[in-house]
Every structure is written in structure tokens, then in C-alpha cells.
Amino acid sequence: MARSSGVGVYLEHGPKRTFACALDWPGWCRVARGDDAALEMLAGYAARYARVATRAGLTLPSVRSAGDLRVVAHVDGTMTTDFGAPDVPLPSDAEPVSGAEAKRMAALLDAAWQELAAVAKRSPASLRKGPRGGGRDRDAMVEHVVNAERAYARKLDVRMTAQEWREGGVAEMRRRILDAVSRPSDGRPVGARGWPVRYMVRRTAWHALDHAWEMEDRST
């Protein structure tokens, strides 16, 4: 369904579900059952992601359907992929990161956080429940995102003592993450259990936006 020219995306194939993720637009990732469905889902969220690009001072190319996307890579996923999170870095994620790319990634990650904050500000405290009565309410969802980011930050060797967390909290953690992300690097993971910076940014931005968009959908 995707064409040979257009926005470059890769597909992460889990046992039952597929993630479609835009390579140059971290956080723009959607999951569905099957490649075509995932690509259509990703295209369907282009207008929402365009707001994030605008916050970062960038312009998202026009994407009206999966035909405006271009599959450039495939990666085997895991059970986490099926659970609903992009879980596998690409081999190209470990390539060197230039100064310009680093600053662009940092801007888009910061924009994803801004989008989550803006959506949370206009959302009710109690969100519409799912068909089985499940789903976090607004404040619990924001707290969940922050707690996940504390774990993600360590994958980039960004750490805070208990005192530093008490004094600086989320703002200081995110400042340190952006400082680390915005520097050029060799792209490789920091430490044996670290993540490549591109994957760390993609996963962190995706998580913030996934819950921002869920919050939007459950506010009505």
C-alpha cells in the first residue's frame, strides 16, 4: 500500500501486531494488526502529529493516506510489540548522530512533552472508560508517563539522586534528557543495557504522544 516515495517509515513485526513508525519524526508511531492496517493507522494520525512538528518549528510533509508513506526497513518485534510498545531499535539507530540531527530530535521530543501538557490542561480529570471500565484517568496517565521516563532516562545514562528529584522533579529530568539528546554522538548505546539515542527519543516521544492522543479520545 505504501509507495516508493514519501515519508520514510519502518515496520516492527510482532507475533500478532505491527508497528509503523516514521524514521525522521520521532513519536509518530501507530500499531495495528497487519502491515497495511498499521500504515493506514499511521497516516490517520498525521494531522495530530503535525501539531507536534509545528511546536518544534518544523513542517510535516502532507500525508493523506498510506500511499504517502514509504517503507524503508523491517525489524522483528517481540511480545512487547504485541502488548503495544515499539520495542526494537533499528541497526541504523546506532549510526553517528550529527549536531543538526541531535538538535532536531531534541526539539521534537520537547514538542511531544508540550503536546501532552497541552492536552492534559484541557482534558477533564475523569476520562471516559473503555468498554470494560478500564483506563487511567488524566492525572494517573501523566504520572505513568513520567514514571516510564525515569526508567527511559537511565537508558541514556541520565540519572538523578533522590535529593535531585525532590528539588528538580520532572522539569530537571527532562532538561537533562534534552541536554544529552541534543549533543552529537557516535549513536551507540551508553552501557550494556543502554539504548541508541535515536531509539530512546523515538520511544520516549511515542509514549508521551500515545497517551496524549488517548487522553484526547477519552475526553469526549
What would you say this structure looks like, in words?
By secondary structure, the chain is of the alpha+beta class. It has seven helices and four strands, in the order βββααβααααα. The longest helix is centred in the middle third of the chain and has 24 residues, at 99-122.
The rounded distance between the terminal residues' Cα atoms is 32 Å
Number of domains: 2
Main pleated-sheet profile: 4 strands, mixed
Helical fraction equals 40-55%
Structural class: alpha+beta
The low-confidence parts are none
- Give, in spatial order, the strands making up the sheet with the most strands: 3-2-1-4
Assembly state of the chains shown: single chain
Secondary structure tally: strands: 4
Task: Please tell me the overall pLDDT.
Answer: 94
Sequence of secondary-structure elements: EEEHHEHHHHH
Q: What would the principal axes of the Cα set say about the shape?
A: globular
Q: Give the strand content.
A: 5-15%
Number of helices in the DSSP assignment: 7
Rg, alpha carbons: 17 Å
What's this model, at a glance?
By secondary structure, the chain is an alpha+beta fold.
Looking at this protein, list some descriptive labels.
49% helix; 220 residues; 11% strand; alpha+beta; globular; four-stranded mixed sheet
Task: Give the secondary structure arrangement, pairings included.
Layout: E1 7-13, E2 18-22, E3 29-32, H1 35-44, H2 46-55, E4 69-76, H3 79-83, H4 99-122, H5 138-154, H6 162-181, H7 197-217
Helix pairs in contact: 2-4, 4-6, 4-7, 5-7
